[in-house]
Amino acid sequence: MDGSTVEIDWESARAANLQNWDDRVPLHRDAYGLDAFDDPAHLSDVVAHDLKALTPYLPSRSLRGLDLCHLQCHIGTDTLSLARAGATVTGVDFSASALRVARELAESHGVHATWVETDVLDARAAVSGDFDVVYTSIGTITWLDDLDRWAAQVAQLLRPGGVFYIRDGHPALYALDENAENLTTRYPYFGDGRAQRWDDESTYVGAGTVAHPRTYEWPHPLSEIIGSLLGAGLRLRHFGEGKVLPWRFSPRMVEVPHGFAWPQSERDLIPCTYTILASRD
Ligand SMILES: C[S@@+](CC[C@H](N)C(=O)[O-])C[C@H]1O[C@@H](n2cnc3c(N)ncnc32)[C@H](O)[C@@H]1O
Question: Dihedral of CA 248/250/251/257: which sign?
Answer without folding.
Answer: negative
